[in-house]
Design brief:
241 residues, alpha+beta, Beta-Lactamase, Arc Repressor Mutant, subunit A, six-stranded mixed β-sheet, 9 helices, 42% helix, 15% strand, Sig_transdc_resp-reg_C-effctor, DNA-binding, WH-like_DNA-bd_sf, transcription, Tscrpt_reg_LuxR_C
Length: 241
């Protein structure tokens, strides 16, 4: 469930698995559907579902997600991924979407490990959700595909990803996920109205020190330095109307 980082990748349900099996002729034999917190790509996923991964690969996906070079490039804005699918090739030394990006020793090690797990070619795209979340749909192939093969695969897998989202999303909790707690959302809503710490404490029926703790926590989660930045970012992440 969302609210705590998953310890592993949950399996697709039977119907989703059958639908995906029909697409394996496109060359992609692995798929991972992930719920993420927008603006916090360096943290582990909020929830993850997959098919075609070995148990070791599934555990590694979660255990090293915060160090995944693709996820970190996305968080730094080096790869402008959105609702339109992008494709990339993992050479074991770099990713084709950002060939000049400087990789750490750990990044390169992870790319080589993924290549050994059959992650040579990838397709990924996002589906925006409410309250600071999005779904990330990721497909992996062990083959180096031609442009024509990729074009054919992208269209079919893009449609499957949205069908998969329609199956999984209704079963997820409707809250904002792991990024902000419900009490932190209460605090930022009051901050947006211009209330100070003492006024927020009185409104919420908690102590001033507790309000300060919540505000420091949400500053850290939103990666901001002051109240104006926090309110602006909360609007961007759909925590505020």
């Amino acid at each position: 469930m969302i609210g705590h980082a998953p310890t592993t990748v949950a399996a697709f349900d039977d119907q989703s698995a059958r639908l995906f099996q029909d697409l394996r002729g496109l060359g992609f034999d692995k798929c991972v559907y992930v719920i993420e917190a927008r603006g916090a790509a360096a943290i582990v996923p909020l929830a993850a579902f997959g098919i075609g991964l070995t148990e070791a690969h599934a555990n590694e996906f979660i255990g090293r997600a915060a160090h995944d070079p693709l996820r970190r490039m996305l968080s730094r804005g080096e790869i402008p991924i959105g609702s339109v699918p992008i494709t990339y090739e993992n050479t074991g030394r770099a990713l084709s979407v950002a060939p000049d990006s400087k990789l750490s020793v750990g990044d390169a090690s992870l790319l080589r490990w993924c290549l050994a797990q059959g992650v040579r070619t990838g397709i990924t795209f996002r589906i925006l959700m409410t309250k600071g979340r999005y779904a990330s749909v990721n497909y992996y192939s062990a083959a180096q595909l031609t442009p024509a093969e990729l074009d054919a695969a992208v269209q079919a897998l893009f449609l499957f990803g949205h069908r998969l989202h329609e199956r999984i999303e209704p079963s997820l909790p409707s809250g904002p996920g792991h990024l902000l707690s419900s009490r932190e959302v209460d605090c930022i809503e009051q901050m947006a109205l211009g209330l100070g710490n003492r006024e927020i404490a009185e409104t919420l029926g908690i102590s001033v020190d507790t309000v300060k703790d919540h505000i420091q926590s949400l500053f850290h989660k939103l990666d901001v330095a002051n109240r104006a930045q926090a309110v602006s970012r909360a609007h961007m992440l759909a925590y505020l109307d």
